TrEMBL record:
InterPro entries, per the entry: DDE_dom, IS_Transposase, Transpos_IS6
Organism per entry: Albidovulum sediminis
Protein name per its UniProtKB record: IS6 family transposase
Pfam families in alphabetical order: DDE_Tnp_IS240
Record-annotated DDE domain positions: 79-206
Keywords: DNA recombination, DNA-binding, Transposition
């Protein structure tokens, strides 16, 4: 049976939709910034159209990226870095928890409204179910992680120490830039949705240019763009 294109109900070309979604998720741009950039390229759309496209196709693209990368990298994730960041939703403090592997890949993004053991336990179970076993968990000195790992019987795998968790803390920076461009969030559900999609797209295009030659960086960037274009080919 032939796979039906997800763009079949739209008169706009799939290339423009994929470009608009990528620009909004990958770069710290507002909806109106994307509208202006597309207008400069001869594409006349409203910023509300960009919003609709992101809500309609962003999670679908992210799910396919995550599926491919989980299958490809599951066996190599020996060390996880766990950390959380404060995010305000309508003036209320929430916590965006992240699990990052030893190579800087964002494994999981999970929003909670508490910082206790139960929230950490739920986050860990969800991450382990999707990504498999980890040999080490690097955390800060927040006691909820130790309590959650102890309840799961893997407290001996926890590692804490000064500067050991910089990998997870640095992974928050791209999201902070996006948060400022979006003027924060209105709903916890919207925060969870965008955090998951943003992490998947960031993983796809993260080439660690400081650790490779210019030639290898260009090849990796071209491969990432080719994969993005082929996610939901029309």
């Amino acid at each position: 049976m032939t796979k039906r294109s997800p763009f079949r109900y739209f008169k706009t070309s799939p290339e423009i939709i994929r470009l608009a979604v990528m620009m909004y998720i990958r770069f710290p741009l507002s909806l109106r910034n994307v509208e202006d950039l597309l207008h400069e390229r001869g594409v006349d759309i409203c910023h509300e159209t960009v919003r609709f496209w992101w809500h309609r196709f962003g999670p679908m693209f992210a799910a396919e990226i995550r599926k491919r990368r989980v299958e490809r990298m599951q066996s190599s994730r020996a060390r996880w870095h766990l950390d959380e960041m404060f995010v305000r939703v309508n003036g209320e403090r929430h916590y965006l928890r992240r699990a990052v592997d030893h190579e800087g890949e964002v494994l999981e993004s999970f929003v909670t409204n508490r910082r206790d053991k139960n929230a950490a336990l739920k986050f860990l179970k969800k991450s382990l179910k999707r990504h498999g076993r980890a040999d080490e968990f690097v955390t800060d000195r927040l006691r909820s992680y130790g309590a959650a790992l102890g309840e799961m019987g893997i407290r001996d795998r926890q590692q804490t120490g000064r500067w050991m968790n910089n990998g997870a803390e640095n992974s928050h920076l791209p999201f902070r830039r996006r948060e400022r461009a979006m003027l924060r969030f209105r709903q916890m559900r919207s925060l969870q949705k965008f955090a998951s999609v943003h992490a998947s797209v960031l993983n796809l295009f993260n080439s660690e240019r400081s650790l490779s030659s210019r030639q290898n960086f260009k090849l990796n960037r071209a491969a990432a763009l080719a994969e993005w274009r082929g996610l939901c080919a029309a």
